[in-house]
Specification:
The structure is a homodimer. By secondary structure, chain A is mainly α. The first copy, chain A, contains 8 helices and 3 strands; from the N terminus they run ααβααββαααα. In chain A, about 65% of the residues lie in helices and about 5% in strands. In chain A, β2 and β3 form a beta hairpin. The longest helix of chain A is centred in the first third of the chain and has 29 residues. Chain A binds a DNA duplex through α3 and α4.
Chain lengths: ~180, ~180
Amino acid sequence: MGHTRWLNDEEKRAWTAFTTAHALLYRRIEQRAKRKFGLSGLQYEILARLSDAPNRELRMAELAGALVNSKSGLTYQIGQMEKAGLVRRRSCPSDDRAVFAVLTDEGMALLERAAPDHVELVRELLFDVLTPDQVRALADGLGEVSRRMAAGPGGTRAAADRTAGSGAGAGAGAGAEVTADLGT
Amino acid sequence: MGHTRWLNDEEKRAWTAFTTAHALLYRRIEQRAKRKFGLSGLQYEILARLSDAPNRELRMAELAGALVNSKSGLTYQIGQMEKAGLVRRRSCPSDDRAVFAVLTDEGMALLERAAPDHVELVRELLFDVLTPDQVRALADGLGEVSRRMAAGPGGTRAAADRTAGSGAGAGAGAGAEVTADLGT
DNA sequence: AGAGTGACGTTCGAATTTGAACAACATGGA
DNA sequence: TCCATGTTGTTCAAATTCGAACGTCACTCT
């Protein structure tokens, strides 16, 4: 516990750029999705996560972990989306505690309409601006950051798996269906 | 309006890494700050932004822009912090509409106690994991992303200035006082 | 079998955030 | 001077988020 290791100028730039870019980006994406499709940012992510999950369903805890959101928060949102018919709940036969959130056809249809808009915006605002090297740095660097945080305290194991894209798993669900690409 | 330019695998990795890392990081930072100092994430940022602003004060709109937050949200938080004695309001003599949020000595003292913890966490979770090249990529790439978004629609001009760290301005306030480094 | 431990999803109240509407003011030109 | 336009900060109701407490259940060890 020596003195604090303060950030140098470049680290400061990196930190503000990181937080500011995220805030700005997320704000735009959310506004667009809400205006054009009535979806909040979180709701879009839920649809996307479910769409490329095996069987288009995920357990609540897994979903909460992947989205880095509280359990209670997810319960609320799934409730809203269930009212809207985008998702339905299915209790797990093998484990009475578990509940699956299942993407309905209606939810899938909405996602398919919303996804092009979403992806186009992300590309335009982020990837069209970054160089290939910078994209790789993001993927590698922040990927590692996520993995470590998810592994350590406070993190949820699910978040790590999502990020890791580890080994054979990554390619498994990708490519077979249109579904696979709607995530991002 | 051609087909959607979907994301390739590396872009997908980058996107999830970006959002996940931010969510995980912010969550930890907020929990720590709240537990040890009773500060929410936004409140810490407010203190930090004010601390290295000329005169330790900023107009509400500027602050809201820099933090990428809504005006009403800032009004609320400044209200809370004013109750806590961390900040006070000062009306602008030259413009009756404008209101300055001013950092009090008490607020400054709290920031000085909280900053080491904050910075240490950011360093440990982020910068200790990234390579120097990756740090530069973050600063440059996401800096440019922020700048463009702030300039375009929906963005606030203040956010751009924050990010730009342009030219001589960056060094101006840095180094002279302890104050300058508490931001990040 | 039975107790202990931990995971799961929900509920609840409090805190926060959001967006639109608003009143007061500044600024520019007719 | 006076009006039109755009800003600034606040208010309000509704929506969302958070954390802790709960009830239910699975799993393990004895």
